[in-house]
Amino acid sequence: MNRQHPPKSTHPPKSTHPPRTTLPLRMAAAALATALTAAVGSWAYLRAGGTALDVTRDLAVGLAYVGGGLVAWWHRPANRTGPLMVAEGITWFLGNLQGTGVPALFALGAWWEALNMAVLVHLVLSFPDGRLTSRIARRLTRFSYGLVALGGLLRALTYDPAVVAVEATYLSCTDCGPNLLHIPALTDLFTPVDTVYRSLGWVLSVVLVVAIVRRWQQSSVARRRALLPAWIAIAIASAFLLWDLLLLLLPTPPAGPLQEAVFLLSDLAQVAVPVAFLIGLLRMRLQRAEVGDLVIDLGTDPDQDRLREVLGRVLGDPGLRLGLWQEGKGAYVDGAGEIVRGEGPGRTRVDSSRGTPLALLHHDPALDEDPELLEAVGAALRLALENLSLRTQAKEVTSRIVRAADAERGRLERDLHDGAQARLVFALMALRRVDKGLAGHPDPSLRHSVAEVEESLKLALEELRGIAHGIHPAVLTREGLGPALTALAQQAALPVVVAADPRRYDPVVESTAYFTVCEALANAAKHARARAVSVSARQLGDRLVVETVDDGIGGADTARGSGLRGLADRLAAVDGILHVDSPAGGGTRIRAELPCG
Q1: Cβ neighbour number for residue 23 with a 10 Å cutoff
Q2: Which burial class, exposed, middle or buried, applies to 14 when counting CB atoms under 10 A from its CB (0-12, 13-18, 19+)?
Q3: Which of 41, 374, 467, 546 yields a CA-CA distance of 20 to 30 A from 261?
Q4: Is 544:537 a contact under the CB 8 Å cutoff?
Q5: Domain segments of the chain: what residues?
């Protein structure tokens, strides 16, 4: 049978990040470019008639993208989302270059003023892993960059700021030009070119919204959480679309509070995108913090369904599948007995500390973007499974020891019964024959001595039988638990009522139940001052339940009594459970549950 080994494992982890030695240089270059474009763009905005509040809002949007992008870039060097956010922040200021009064800078700003929208499209479609994974995403991204490059160039060639400055830029400066790229013969084409250019931008926005909606519908819970910043960006694109439609339908641009309110809302929405991304990054870190409690949440003896539930909660992926390695099948098998395949994205293999297969997580591919979280979860899962394996092995060893001890007690009981006890019986019979032969002997002291020896032999035989019964009662081996408990009750120092099912169980289960009752009766007689005891043994499902109830003073505590602690250990060795209910003055109930299925 083929052994499946997915390509990615949490042991040992392998970093996919580029060397951090060059990362600070690239980030420093990005910060320098941001400072240059922000400074020139803000100055140009003021020169073109913008107010201090306008410039402040403009700077807030651009720098929010750059700041969020640098943080994301540093923490996720292998992810292109950070650099894209930085590019969005830098290109945000390009349109402001039209206010510099420098022909070359004006042409640059007029041509590439919508480049930030193309970068935003790229960012939204590739979020959160920074990759364009679908054909429609790649086509939309190429179309957006092509529209800005070709459409923006054609618009710049027809744009004369002296003629259409107000209509084109909504700035109050009249000396922003000239436009170095302007061709005077094409000036009359500006209006139709600009209309087509904007219309294609509207169509692109609508298609972008439809693509993201479909992506959202097809995504899991974990992926939807990761796509939250993309939805904020969609709201931004929709706001710009509605604003442009409003400007197209109205004969003159709306002025006053309405215009200021729309611009303010648009800028706030723009700032929300990088903020939302950083919140998502913080949420990933909080998820990793939850891993510290994961081992505790898994419990001391978790089953596979419990493991899957806890892991799904920590990873934020309710649809997670967990496959545990089964050597016999040579595959990872989930709780339903189905094989979990190890090919494709969204698979994380967890190996043991020795490098052998242990488990396979089939999770949402969006989680691949947080390898630290997957590594931490894998380490916690490895620890839990290895601890469980060690406990299982220890329990098996202890169970074998208990079975071996019971078998040895049975052998000792048989040896005493068939050996020393039989010899004492033969010696007693021989002595009685001697006593009969001395019936007419004239020396009475001789007959008295024989009687004393006979009495000593009887006491020795009774003591030997008691020892043999304490080691392993013969009636338990021959007839089972019910008759053995009845015989035990007959020998008890206080009245005992027994109710037991007339059936046989595994020898180890029977002996464990028997000695549990022995310890309970001893406690009732010695410590509880009980007047009567009831004993029951019955099967409930796949468990044998043995209960001993007395009417004594109560107050029994497993933490203080070595006998009850020993009982709990013996029961645990055979996968049993001991319950002790002993309120002061209310008697004692000792309940033992043993597997018998």
Answers
A1: 14
A2: exposed
A3: 41
A4: yes
A5: 25-288, 480-595
* One-letter amino acid for residue 44 of the chain: A
- Do the bridges between strand 577-581 and strand 588-595 make them parallel or antiparallel, or are there none, so unpaired? antiparallel
**Token couple for 77:** 């060097």
Structure tokens at 321: 């599948």
Residues 137, 127: Cα–Cα separation, whole Å:
11
Say how far apart CA 442 and CA 446 lie, in whole Å.
9
Integer-rounded Cα radius of gyration of the chain: 43
State how far Cα 243 lies from the chain centre: 44
Q: Alpha helices of 499-592 — where are they, by DSSP H?
A: 507-526, 562-573
> For residue 535, what are the β-bridge partners?
498, 548
CA angle 126, 131, 137 (to 5 degrees): 55
- Angle at Cα 211 formed by Cα 148 and Cα 215, nearest 5°? 135
CA 56 from centroid of its chain's CA atoms: 43
Query: For helices 257-290 and 304-315, what crossing angle results, to 10°?
Result: 150
Task: Say if residues 239 and 202 touch (Cβ distance below 8 Å).
Answer: no
Short-list 307, 314, 309, 310, CA closest to 283: 314
Cis before 128 (ω within 30):
yes
DSSP per-residue codes, 127-141: TTTT---SHHHHHHH
Residue recorded with tokens 């905005």: 45
Residue 84: both structure tokens together: 């894209």
Q: Domain spanning 25-288: which CATH class is it, in words?
A: mainly alpha
375 closest CA partner among 284, 288, 278? 288
Say if CB 516 and CB 567 are below 8 A apart.
yes
User: Identity (one letter) of the amino acid at 231?
Assistant: W
Torsion angle of C-alpha atoms 240, 243, 244, 245, degrees rounded to 10: 120
Burial of 268 (0-12, 13-18, 19+ CB in 10 A): middle
Q: Which CATH architecture has domain 480-595?
A: 2-Layer Sandwich (3.30)
Q: Can you state the angle between helices 115-126 and 81-91, rounded to 10 degrees? A: 160
3-state secondary structure of 479: helix
Question: Which amino acid appears at position 111 of this protein?
Answer: W
Angle between helices 562-573 and 507-526 (to 10 degrees): 170
Answer for the pair 441, 447: CB distance below 8 angstroms, yes or no: yes
Q: Give me the average pLDDT of each 10-residue run along the chain (597 residues).
A: 44 49 87 93 87 86 89 82 90 90 91 91 81 87 95 92 58 68 91 90 84 74 64 63 59 60 67 70 59 59 73 76 83 83 80 81 75 75 70 58 60 58 65 69 70 68 56 74 86 87 86 85 83 91 91 77 72 83 87 85
Residue 535 phi/psi, 5-degree rounding, is -125, 130
CA dihedral 87, 89, 93, 95 (to 10 degrees): 60
pTM of the predicted protein model: 0.56
572-579: long-range contacts, CB 8 A cutoff, minimum separation 24: 572/395, 572/398, 573/395, 573/398, 573/399, 573/401, 573/402, 574/399, 574/402, 574/508, 574/509, 574/512, 575/395, 575/399, 576/512, 578/516
Question: With contact defined as beta carbons under 8 Å apart, do 521 and 515 qualify?
Answer: no
Contact of 97 with 91, CB cutoff 8 Å: no
Percent helix, strand, coil in the chain, to 5, is: 65, 10, 25
Q: What's the rounded Cα separation, in Å, for the pair 479 and 486?
A: 11
